[in-house]
Amino acid sequence: MPVPPGAPGASATYEFDIAVVGGGIAGLSAALSAHEAGASAVLLEKAPLPNRGGNTRFADAQMRFPHEADEFGPRDYSADDMYRDLMRISRGRANPDLIRTLCDNARQTAEWLTGLGLEWEAGYPHTAGYRRSPKAGGQGLVDLLYRRLEGAGVPVSYETGAVDLIVDDARRIAGVRCHSPEGVVDIMAAKGVILACGGFQANIEMRVRYLGRFADNLILRGSRFNTGEGLRMAIDAGAQPAGQWGDYHSAVLDARSPRVECGVTALYNYQMGIFVDRQGYRFIDEGEDFRDHTYVKFSKRIIEEAGGEAWCIFDQRAYQREEFARAWRPVGPPFEAGSLTELASVIDVPPENLVETITGFNNAVQPGDYNLDVLDGKAATGITPPKSNWALPLDQPPYVAIPVTGGITFTFGGLKCDASARVIDTREQVMGGLYAAGEPMGEFFYYNYPGASSVIRGAVFGRIAAQHAASR
Ligand SMILES: Cc1cc2nc3c(=O)[nH]c(=O)nc-3n(C[C@H](O)[C@H](O)[C@H](O)COP(=O)(O)OP(=O)(O)OC[C@H]3O[C@@H](n4cnc5c(N)ncnc54)[C@H](O)[C@@H]3O)c2cc1C
Questions:
Q1: DSSP structure class, residue 365
Q2: Of 221, 183, 214, 380, which is closest to residue 307 (Cα–Cα)?
Q3: Are 344 and 351 in contact (CB under 8 A)?
Q4: What is the pLDDT of residues 330-384, one digit of tens each?
Q5: 379 with 296, same domain?
Q6: What pLDDT is recorded for position 127?
Q7: Which 3 state secondary structure label does DSSP give 121?
Q8: What is the pLDDT of residue 75?
């Protein structure tokens, strides 16, 4: 529960202008921006130094932002295009002010990161020409920003987990109480506290409470430290919950991935093959849309409709493609067999069902040009479900099977915020001194997720929160 300033129980009190809680992309962007704006800032990070960097560290950290054709993608991608994509994928439920702010600031924020020394991969091939990857991935991104923070003399306190907000008589957020290596400490923040401490994906109790019974057994892709304290502290102090608390980001994972902090073990090549369940039946239109727009929802369908265990099946026509290897970082070797019957026995699926599924699928494949760069309309029709694009018969042995499941990356539910990243309370009023950035913000993602949007969201709103707080 919130504590008043000077409440008993803290062994020491420290004073800053701005306290940033959490050191992933959002917190690092906030702390650096606070320093640039002339404010004294501290970064409070719950993890020990070797584990710092939150979910960001485990990501490729691809970022979507507007650009002109040929800069690094084949087409112009305007802020309006990005806005339309993000709103469409949320089925119109995302907060238009927040999405507009994200899209309008994404480009200059990416340039700010470049100015700090971030090196980018050259363009991104194929369908997702609007995104770019840092050369050294998320780990390189957070290492760079920590170096910049250290160079600027901004203190970072590791193993320091925020547990309660400090709230004064005027209901203003005056600081944050933490558990630290020194014991309980109060960090007073005259200009503001910025919550950049992730969602509740690593908290099993909250996962089951908000997502459902199945959610205790999801593979956690990112940081084990994002256990929802930021959300709880803010709500206890009167913040308004917002967004889709019953949903989450995930990906189609190799089922052999480590159960915690597995990183990038996702299969992004499933559109070149088919999914079957443990009975050997298809249950998803694998070619419904570009994989950027399907991987999150397909992973949930594997959990909900296939009990979390399914197979992705390919033949050599797919397996030998250059794009296949690029879209899969193997956790283990694929299962292979020279015939479908043999494959079925290797993966323990009823052989007659698998043969019936793949024969039926092959017969349903329509003529047309196969092109992974566009929605090519090369479909398998007259079967349930159809495959709307990229349908080729699976008839080139040896056949290949990879076990797949769903995982959890981050949660969609968060806090109600305005476009300046200020947290709003249940009276619909701004909570003086409280900001959120990155995953703790609600109202961005619903049902599904537009690839490459979360790291850039953290950077954009971390900066905005710090600039606003510094100007108070
Ligand atoms: C495997 C994987 C791949 C991904 N790929 C991409 C991608 O390519 N592009 C993309 O846009 N997104 C991607 N994502 C999602 C994206 O990485 C995250 O959503 C984003 O980086 C979150 O940034 P953040 O700063 O909000 O949170 P985080 O980076 O998670 O940082 C939160 C920090 O808060 C700390 N913390 C938690 N609780 C407390 C507390 N009580 N007190 C103090 N500190 C606390 C944590 O230790 C952590 O360091 C991926 C995620 C994963 C796991």
A1: B
A2: 214
A3: yes
A4: 999 999 999 999 999 999 999 999 999 999 999 999 999 999 989 999 999 999 9
A5: yes
A6: 54
A7: coil
A8: 79
* pLDDT at residue 426, rounded to an integer: 98
Which protein residue has the closest C-alpha to ligand 1 atom 35? 22
Residue 284: domain span: 252-408
407 lines ligand 1 (CB under 6 A): no
Q: Is the CB of 261 under 6 A from ligand 1?
A: no
Would you say the CB of residue 248 lies under 6 angstroms from ligand 1?
Answer: no
DSSP labels, 276-330: EETTS---S-TTSS-GGGTHHHHHHHHHHHHTT-EEEEE-HHHHTSHHHHHTB--
pLDDT digits (tens, 9 = 90+) for 123-151: 655 555 678 999 999 999 999 999 999 99
Residue 295's domain is classified under what CATH number? 3.90.700.10
Residues 6+ apart with CB under 8 A from 296: 249, 250, 251, 448, 449
Q: What is the pLDDT of residues 24-64, one digit of tens each?
A: 999 999 999 999 999 999 999 999 999 999 999 999 999 99
Q: What is the pLDDT of residue 74?
A: 73
Considering only CA atoms, which residue is closest to atom 53 of ligand 1?
222
The ligand 1 atom at the shortest distance from the C-alpha of residue 163 is 41
* Number of the ligand 1 atom closest to the C-alpha atom of 55: 30
Residue 268: per-residue pLDDT: 93
Using alpha carbons, select from 452, 386, 371, 464 the residue that is nearest to residue 89.
452
CATH of the domain at 154: 3.50.50.60
Report how far residue 70's alpha carbon sits from residue 286's, in angstroms, rounded to the nearest whole number. 30
Classified as helix, coil or strand, 245 is coil
- Tens digits of per-residue pLDDT, 158-195? 999 999 999 999 999 999 999 999 999 999 999 999 99
- The number of distinct structural domains making up the chain is 2
User: Residue 439: pLDDT above 70?
Assistant: yes
Last residue of a domain, one of 408, 433, 456: 408
| 186 CB within 6 A, ligand 1 | no
Count of C-beta atoms within a 10 Å radius of residue 368? 12
Angle between helices 25-36 and 137-151 (to 10 degrees): 30
- At what angle are helices 25-36 and 454-470 packed, to 10 degrees? 30
